[in-house]
Amino acid sequence: MTPINPDSIHQGDRLALSRALTAIENNEPAGNEIQTALFPHTGKAHLVGVTGASGTGKSTLVNQLAKLLRRSKVNERAPKIAIIAVDPTSSFTGGALLGDRIRMQDLAGDKGIFIRSMASRGALGGLAHKTAAFATVLDGAGFDLILIETVGAGQAEVDIAQLAHTVIVVEAPGMGDDIQAIKAGILEIADILVVNKADRPGAQNTALALKAMLAMFHGGDLPTVGKHMRRATHDEPKTVQKSEKEAWRPPVQLVTATEGKGVDELIGEIYQHRRFLMDTGIWQDKEAHRLRREIEALIKDSLVDQWRQNIDKSKFEKVLKEVIERKYAPIEAVKLLL
Q1: Which segments in the chain show pLDDT lower than 50?
Q2: Prediction pTM value
Q3: Which H or E element spans position 66?
Q4: For residue 333, which of 3, 92, 96, 144 sits 20 to 30 Å off, Cα-Cα?
Q5: How many angstroms separate the CA atoms of 240 and 145, rounded?
Q6: Hey, where are the domains in the chain?
Q7: What is the CATH number of domain 42-280?
Q8: Tell me: the pLDDT tens digits for 261-313?
Q9: What is the sign of the dihedral through the CA atoms of 150, 239, 296 and 287?
């Protein structure tokens, strides 16, 4: 196989980029080499996560965002847009439809847009194991904005908050009552809330419920920022707000993605959030936190791989048998196997 040249990826070779992403997804050594070579060129792209329940219209919204973002200007030129669309993998067959690309066919003719679908491959949290690596390579390839669409997420699939600079949570009228909106933990990660399908009855009520939920969540005081730090460990400092100037109150934007209504205003909110992150220094905090989490995840994967390579298979089966027979609890089995 012809080696993949990192320089050609950085210069815009889409075929080389596609091959590199495939190598990463398949855990090939070439994928690691590409990530290492491109990493010095990263840190410039704005990562925008789009998440929400199935049926809220995330793919249609991402499609419209990409088209209209290309008409905007960043440094006097149209921004280059990359899209990572994560689709769920079947627990039974191991396959994935990768159907998000079907809804984005009208973007195919734009050379300033690159779309890559990927299967979740059993990963929980709304992303795939290699989503962060994909984002790194696309950043190194020179894309200005990277839109990351998660699988249809529920109340706990919030990994996107650890990866993206800006998180858009998409809701839609008729997806549940007001209490459901208030209790949904996924809303806590939103930097921008979108009520899609705003042409449907009940959209205004949904928006009002979300605004009420935000007021309740923030207790009427300054909104929480740096939500990516909420799971900070005892040795990892949390972001602290010092003044109202450093507060970001998530806006609630009504959108009808199928018609493009409200999408321009949403893009304005995305750019406004980017400016806020830069002006307050939270952008750098988010980058440090994201890289910390990525290193920790890679360490865990590496340790598990080493354990699987070194474990005596017969010993594992013996201990498993004794667990099944209730001679050992699983926690005792772990101590024996380590």
Answers
A1: 91-96, 179, 181-183, 220-226, 228-234, 237, 239-242
A2: 0.84
A3: helix 58-69
A4: 92
A5: 27
A6: 1-38, 42-280, 284-338
A7: 3.40.50.300
A8: 999 999 999 999 999 999 999 999 999 998 998 899 889 989 999 999 999 99
A9: positive
